[in-house]
Recover the amino acids of this structure.
């Protein structure tokens, strides 16, 4: 009996100590939705790789700041030649990789040459396309010569795909990433979590956290309890639909920021009856953006009328072009000879904006006589059926790449949209560097897309971050998909 | 006895071979190209084709099947497309979660069910029996994932006694690890316990009606001794059968339960692998589960022979 | 656990009288009738239209206007449970139909023929049993796409070996009986005997197994829908309602509680009904009481 009492007491004690509040902590558990396929940002397109490693483990010549600005990183400064073609980077000295090897100009040359080589597996080879040669001037100086001037070159060098790796470790970064950042990789429990710890020999400003664990939580259903029970203290990319669950809880801070994600109801423009302008316009009139944003995104998200972020300087507000109007939609369908409505399919990828938005849109289109069959698909099937084979009528997806209006001019893109007038504007845009002129062209491009009702423009995806109210320094916006932990600390 | 065991063994192996063909064939017709998925949106057709070659996806069907089976036999399951590590490593990691979970759940359900069954059987028809069997009926009817949700909100969110999900790893210590398996195990065990209790009760009642039990009672043996020494032993056959069958249910149950609690176990691995078209992982794990089910059933069959000597002669 | 059921020699009246005295049967019968009635009523009337989304009314707590509250799209939970009952019943019923339709002839055939055919059919059964049902159902729906039809097929396939076993076991017990021997002596073929004499005598066994599989089917459908592979919107289904509810447990727990209870009560009712039928028709179990 006495033994039992002792065991019970020990168990209760363990229970009490393990669930009690933490004071002045230096560890952090961050929830991420998708698990990275591997840990080399220079060899994969998956945003999840950057979410863990960008700015934490790996660094580039430059880096992107919390609001999308270009900041110096491994390059402490740079000079640009008058013709805009030669960039001379001055590097920080005394920088070491996590395995103890020294960082110098030869690593920069190695990394850039590796990324742009013919057999490179870099997912964003376009970033390096303008580079002609990379020369080591001295161990602390690198000269990059471009084929032609490129206004976005410094920004490009700040991408996760352009981080600097060492020749000694480049091949094994997928499993054991070795970078120059303030955190070094410790372990990866597949399917569960990735742990980073503070690097002792970091060259820059020391970080506050000793340990950061990225825990993989695929569905929102598990995210909420994990947050509420304190297992996970931050979800930088939280499902907007679940915000209501935590927003009134003083233990948490809910931060709504912006992304570059235009959420659209994509339409297969070549497939009858969607090849008729009237039908696409009817859909545009049938959509009630406010209800969609309220129902699928917890009321967060700015309505859009064309393919441009409202935060952009080039943005033109076209949301008034097709106000929600059921009668008008029915009339247009009648003009198209479809007064009895028609049937179509709506393929929905996994994110909640698509699955929830899809149900709402199906209901709205039903009101004008379009009967949609909802087909939920996994990302694998979506890529295969919708994106690659263009076997779809309608789908919902958020295009999160910044400044990507040119996708509508791409041949063979999954919208099946073909408008020479639009293509001409994009071609002209690529040759224009003057900002004012660019914005005018971008405005025209937006208007054409809206007039053609190419797709159903819905809203700009919000970036919802939820974290412990005592946590400071996480990014509010998402200019790129990353969780920069260099400034993160616990208050108290 | 040897002939009986041999026959069971041959059947088990034949089933395994057939099952491996079914698994392989089914996964062949699964839509979605893993190479395309790995390379992302911007990859060219040439790149996809190159990767398909590297991954051995372009080899003839029969060759791939034989290669796969050969690998299974030598415990070389191939490499996961998505994680680019050997599948066996993934399996080993995940097993460290799923196996303890299944065992705890099995133990829990047995520990709950047998005493309840005994109690009910010994007070057949009385209030205690009615209440216990009513509760068992309820237990059978509760979907385990719904029960899991209720448990999470009660114990993790409200009372904050245990984690809502996730697994710290055994390296974090035995107690924290066990603690995070507690709710999932309870959620898994309850419906199983309810079924088992019902089976145990009816098996016991059946046995208690047998003549030799009456004889034992008539000889003046105390009721308790009869129950434990004779009845329970003989009621073990149906209980064992159900336990064997339950193992399959338990494994299937872990797929949903591991997803609810986001435990990095085999069940979640296979669920994720299906959605990511990581065919090698799906194939290997499904085969492993099938092997496990067949092996457990074989063990159950064999243990019949030991529990009930009459069976030995019969087969 | 072999259920040995003799041919009921009682009259319909005495069976009914027994039924009225059997508590399990009564409770189960009432619950089942209520659930079926609810599903039928939903065809002509529900408190609210379940296809109409009223976003402004989302996640309202239970009130006199909405007894069970509203969901994340402002739909009435009670109405959805009523309509969802249709889906659960339809999926489970058709899945049982598939299982019986294929499994019973197979089992009866195996019992009639015996020998190698019997052995190989039973081994095929083992093969299906070797696959964890839910895992296979997930794989089937992953291949053919999520949806009610594929859920029915996935669940139905795993009902086949269950009914085949029951039919075979029941038939094997009947075959050595005198009246079968008489029929054989009269020159009837095995198929004829199977249909005319064997199957009617295993009908009660199949009825009991049918209610059990029906209940399991409802649970399985809920499980598949819960992982997003069952019935698709706008068709309400109980499992899907739980799927939608799980991310809203803190703000709208009623979204999880009521559909969950609908499942529990329905399955409970069916299980009690099955138990009751077995009790009433099985003289052996009567002896035990």
């Amino acid at each position: 009996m006495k033994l039992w009492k002792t065991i019970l007491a020990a168990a209760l004690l363990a229970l009490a100590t393990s669930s009690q509040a933490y004071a002045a902590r230096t560890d952090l558990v961050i929830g991420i939705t998708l698990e990275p396929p591997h840990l080399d940002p220079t060899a994969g397109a998956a945003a999840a790789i950057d979410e863990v490693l960008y700015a934490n483990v790996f660094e580039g010549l430059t880096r992107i700041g919390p609001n999308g600005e270009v900041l110096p990183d491994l390059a402490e400064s740079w000079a640009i030649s008058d013709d805009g073609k030669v960039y001379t980077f001055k590097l920080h000295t005394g920088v070491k990789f996590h395995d103890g090897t020294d960082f110098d100009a030869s690593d920069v040359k190695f990394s850039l040459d590796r990324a742009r080589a013919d057999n490179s597996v870099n997912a964003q080879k376009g970033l390096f396309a303008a580079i002609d040669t990379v020369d080591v001037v001295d161990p602390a100086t690198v000269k990059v010569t471009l084929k032609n001037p490129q206004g976005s070159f410094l920004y490009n060098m700040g991408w996760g795909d352009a981080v600097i790796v060492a020749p000694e470790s480049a091949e094994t970064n997928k499993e054991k990433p070795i970078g120059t950042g303030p955190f070094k990789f410790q372990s990866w429990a597949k399917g569960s979590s990735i742990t980073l710890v503070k690097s002792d020999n970091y060259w820059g400003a020391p970080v506050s956290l000793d340990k950061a664990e990225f825990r993989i939580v695929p569905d929102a259903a598990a995210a909420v309890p994990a947050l509420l029970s304190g297992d996970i203290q931050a979800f930088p990319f939280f499902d907007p639909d679940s915000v209501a669950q935590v927003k009134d809880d003083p233990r948490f801070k809910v931060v709504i920021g912006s992304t570059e994600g235009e959420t659209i109801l994509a339409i297969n423009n070549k497939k009858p009856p969607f090849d008729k302008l009237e039908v696409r316009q009817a859909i545009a009139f049938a959509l009630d953006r406010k209800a969609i944003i309220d129902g699928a995104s917890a009321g967060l998200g700015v309505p859009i009328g064309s393919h441009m972020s409202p935060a952009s300087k080039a943005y033109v507000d076209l949301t008034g072009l097709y106000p929600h109007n059921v009668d008008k939609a029915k009339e247009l369908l009648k003009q198209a000879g479809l007064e009895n409505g028609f049937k179509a399919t709506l393929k929905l990828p996994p994110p909640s904006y698509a699955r929830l938005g899809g149900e709402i849109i199906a209901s709205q289109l039903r009101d004008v006589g379009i009967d949609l069959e909802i087909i939920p698909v996994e990302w694998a099937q979506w890529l295969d059926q919708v994106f690659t084979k263009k076997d779809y009528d309608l789908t919902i997806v958020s295009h999160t790449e910044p400044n990507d209006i040119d996708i509508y001019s791409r041949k063979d893109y999954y919208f099946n949209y073909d408008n020479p007038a639009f293509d001409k504007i994009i071609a002209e845009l690529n040759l224009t560097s003057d900002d004012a002129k660019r914005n005018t062209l971008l405005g025209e491009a937006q208007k054409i897309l809206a007039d053609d009702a190419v797709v159903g423009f819905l809203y700009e995806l919000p970036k919802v971050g939820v974290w412990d109210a005592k946590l400071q320094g996480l990014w509010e916006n998402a200019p790129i998909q990353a969780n920069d932990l260099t400034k993160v600390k616990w208050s108290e | 006895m040897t002939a009986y065991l041999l026959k069971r063994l041959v059947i088990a192996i034949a089933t395994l071979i057939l099952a491996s063909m079914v698994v392989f064939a089914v996964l062949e017709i699964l839509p979605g190209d893993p190479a395309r998925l790995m390379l992302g949106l911007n990859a060219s057709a040439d790149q996809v084709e190159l990767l398909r070659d590297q991954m051995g996806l372009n080899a003839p069907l029969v060759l791939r099947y034989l290669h796969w089976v050969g690998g299974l036999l030598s415990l070389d399951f191939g490499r996961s497309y998505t994680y680019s590590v050997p599948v066996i490593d993934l399996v080993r990691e995940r097993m460290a979660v799923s196996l303890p979970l299944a065992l705890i759940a099995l133990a829990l359900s047995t520990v709950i069910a047998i005493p309840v069954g005994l109690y009910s059987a010994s007070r057949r028809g009385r209030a205690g029996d009615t209440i216990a069997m009513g509760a068992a009926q309820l237990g059978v009817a509760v979907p385990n994932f719904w029960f899991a949700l209720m448990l999470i909100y009660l114990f993790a969110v409200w009372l904050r006694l245990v984690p809502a999900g996730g697994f710290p790893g055994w390296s974090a210590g035995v107690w924290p690890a066990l603690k995070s398996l507690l709710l999932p195990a309870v959620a898994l065990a309850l419906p199983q316990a309810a079924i088992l209790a019902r089976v145990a009760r009816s098996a016991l009642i059946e046995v208690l009606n047998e003549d030799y039990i009456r004889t034992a009672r008539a000889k003046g043996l105390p009721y308790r001794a009869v129950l434990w020494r004779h009845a329970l032993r003989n009621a073990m056959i149906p209980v064992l059968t159900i336990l064997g069958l339950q193992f399959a249910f338990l494994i299937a149950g872990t797929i949903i339960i591991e997803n609810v609690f986001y435990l990095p176990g085999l069940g979640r691995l296979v669920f994720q692998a299906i959605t990511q078209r990581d065919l090698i992982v799906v194939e290997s794990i499904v085969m492993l589960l099938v092997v496990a089910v067949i092996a457990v059933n074989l063990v159950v069959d064999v243990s019949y022979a030991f529990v009930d000597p009459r069976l030995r002669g019969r087969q | 656990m072999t259920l040995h059921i003799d041919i009921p020699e009682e009259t319909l009246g005495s069976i009914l009288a027994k039924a009225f005295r059997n508590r399990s049967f009564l409770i189960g019968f009432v619950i089942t009738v209520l659930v079926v009635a609810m599903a039928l009523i939903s065809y002509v009337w529900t408190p609210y239209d379940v296809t109409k989304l009223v976003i402004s009314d989302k996640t309202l707590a239970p009130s006199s206007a909405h007894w069970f509250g509203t969901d994340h799209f402002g739909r009435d939970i009670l109405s959805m449970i009523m309509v969802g009952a249709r889906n659960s019943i339809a999926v489970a019923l058709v899945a049982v139909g598939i299982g019986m339709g294929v499994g019973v002839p197979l089992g009866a055939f195996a019992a009639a023929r015996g020998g190698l055919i019997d052995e190989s059919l039973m081994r095929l059964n083992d093969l299906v049993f070797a696959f964890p049902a839910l895992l296979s159902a997930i794989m089937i729906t992953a291949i053919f796409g999520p949806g009610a039809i594929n859920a029915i097929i996935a669940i139905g396939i795993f009902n086949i070996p269950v009914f085949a076993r029951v039919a075979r076991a029941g038939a094997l017990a009947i075959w050595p009986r005198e009246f079968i021997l008489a029929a054989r002596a009269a020159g009837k073929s095995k198929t004829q005997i199977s249909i005319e004499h064997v199957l009617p005598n295993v009908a009660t066994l199949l009825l009991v197994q049918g209610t059990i599989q029906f209940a399991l089917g409802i649970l399985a459908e809920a499980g598949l829908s819960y992982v997003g592979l069952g019935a698709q919107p706008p068709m309400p289904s109980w499992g899907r309602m739980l799927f939608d509810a799980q991310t809203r447990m803190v703000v709208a727990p009623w979204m999880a509680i009521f559909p969950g209870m609908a499942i529990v009560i329905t399955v409970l009712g069916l299980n009690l009904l099955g138990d009751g039928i077995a009790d009433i028709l099985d003289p052996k179990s009567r002896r035990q009481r």
